[in-house]
C-alpha cells in the first residue's frame, strides 16, 4: 500500500466532507451539527431502538446518549427507556432537512452537464461497491455453528432452484467432515458468503461450497474467499487444491480459470461436480519475502490428472 494512495484518499475525504458542509455546526443551515441531523434522518417516522441506532451508525453509547439528550432538550425527540421517537416538531425538522438536502444536491448537479452528472453518479456507485468490498469481514467459523449452516442452506436452495436436476442438500459437507477450515463472509454482521476446504490426502485438499449471496455479487468477494481458503490451506501443509462445479455456474468457472486452476479429469462421484479443476499452491515461506497470499502456479491438465491417484479415492462427501 503506497503512502501516496493513503494521502489521496484522505484528501478526497476532506474535500467531500467540506463540500457537503458536514464540518459546520449549522448543517444545511439549521442550528445543529451534522451528527444530530443524521440522527433525525435515522430515527425516521417510527420508533427506533437505541441499540439498533448505535449499531447501525457505529456510535459510542455515551456519544449517542448525549446527542439524543440534546435533541430531546430541543423537543425534537421523545426518549423512552430504550427507544427514540421524533416528536411532531422533530418530524417537521426532518422534513425541512430533506428539502434542504435535496435542494443542495440539485444546485450542485445543476452546475454540471448531463455527461458530468452521469460520470459523478457512476463514480459514486463504484466508490460504494469498493467500500462495501473493503468492509466485508471474512473469518473462520465453527462448521457446526448455526450461522455457518444457514449460509450453506442458502447456497443449497439457490442451486436447487437453478439446476434442472435440482440439488440434494444432503450432499452438503457435514460439520464433522470439515477437516480443514470453514470461512464465512459478513457484511454489517449479515452472512453474505461462505466456503470451506477438506483434506483429501497428504498435501491434497478440496475446496467446497464457495458461494456469494446475490446481494453481495460484483464486489470481488468470490475471489477474496477463494484466496483466503488457498492461503489457509497452504499454511496447513496443503500443496494442491481441487474443486468441482456445475457447467451452469459460468461465473464460478470464469473465477477458477482466471485464478490459475486447470481443468482435470473428474475425481468425485457427486453428480453436480461435472467439471473438475486443480491448482498447485505455494506456501508463504516458499513464495519468498513479501508474498501476502498463497501463489498459484499453473500446471498442465495432463500432469494434474496423473496425480489424482490415491488421494482422489480418499475423497468422500
TrEMBL record:
Disordered as annotated region, ranges:
287-317
Q: Name one GO molecular function term.
A: acyltransferase activity
EC number, as in UniProt: 2.3.1.-
- What UniProt keywords apply to this chain's record, in alphabetical order? Acyltransferase, Transferase
**Tell me, what's a Pfam family for it?**
Acetyltransf_1
Start and end residues of each N-acetyltransferase domain: 142-282
PANTHER family named in the record: AMINOALKYLPHOSPHONATE N-ACETYLTRANSFERASE-RELATED, AMINOALKYLPHOSPHONATE N-ACETYLTRANSFERASE-RELATED-RELATED
Q: From the Swiss-Prot or TrEMBL record, give the protein name.
A: GNAT family N-acetyltransferase
Amino acid at each position: 500500500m503506497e503512502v501516496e494512495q493513503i494521502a489521496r484518499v484522505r484528501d478526497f475525504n476532506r474535500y467531500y466532507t467540506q463540500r457537503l458542509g458536514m464540518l459546520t455546526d449549522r448543517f444545511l443551515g439549521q442550528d445543529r451539527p451534522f451528527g444530530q441531523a443524521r440522527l433525525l434522518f435515522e430515527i425516521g417516522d417510527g420508533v427506533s431502538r437505541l441499540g439498533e441506532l448505535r449499531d447501525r451508525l457505529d456510535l459510542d453509547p455515551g456519544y449517542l446518549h448525549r446527542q439524543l439528550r440534546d435533541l430531546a432538550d430541543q423537543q425534537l425527540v421523545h426518549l423512552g427507556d430504550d427507544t427514540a421517537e421524533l416528536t411532531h416538531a422533530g418530524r417537521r425538522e426532518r422534513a425541512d432537512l430533506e428539502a434542504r438536502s435535496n435542494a443542495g444536491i440539485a444546485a450542485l448537479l445543476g452546475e454540471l452537464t448531463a455527461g458530468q452528472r452521469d460520470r459523478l453518479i457512476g463514480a459514486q456507485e463504484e466508490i460504494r461497491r469498493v467500500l462495501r468490498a473493503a468492509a466485508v469481514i471474512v473469518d473462520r467459523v465453527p462448521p457446526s455453528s448455526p450461522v455457518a449452516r444457514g449460509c450453506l442452506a442458502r447456497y443449497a436452495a439457490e442451486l436447487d432452484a437453478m439446476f434442472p436436476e435440482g440439488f440434494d442438500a444432503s450432499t452438503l459437507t457435514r460439520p464433522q467432515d470439515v477437516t480443514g477450515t470453514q470461512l464465512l463472509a459478513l457484511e454489517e454482521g449479515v452472512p453474505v458468503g461462505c466456503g470451506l476446504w477438506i483434506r483429501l490426502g497428504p498435501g491434497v485438499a478440496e475446496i467446497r461450497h464457495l458461494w456469494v449471496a446475490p446481494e453481495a455479487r460484483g464486489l470481488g468477494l468470490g475471489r477474496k474467499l477463494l484466496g483466503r481458503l488457498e492461503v489457509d490451506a497452504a499454511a496447513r501443509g496443503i500443496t494442491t487444491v481441487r474443486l468441482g462445479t456445475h457447467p451452469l455456474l459460468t461465473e464460478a468457472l470464469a473465477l477458477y480459470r482466471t485464478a490459475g486452476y486447470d481443468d482435470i479429469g473428474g475425481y468425485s462421484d457427486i453428480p453436480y461436480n461435472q467439471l473438475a479443476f486443480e491448482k498447485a499452491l505455494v506456501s508463504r515461506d516458499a513464495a519468498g519475502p513479501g508474498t501476502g497470499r498463497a501463489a498459484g502456479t499453473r500446471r498442465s491438465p495432463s500432469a494434474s490428472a496423473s496425480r489424482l491417484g490415491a488421494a482422489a479415492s480418499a475423497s468422500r462427501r
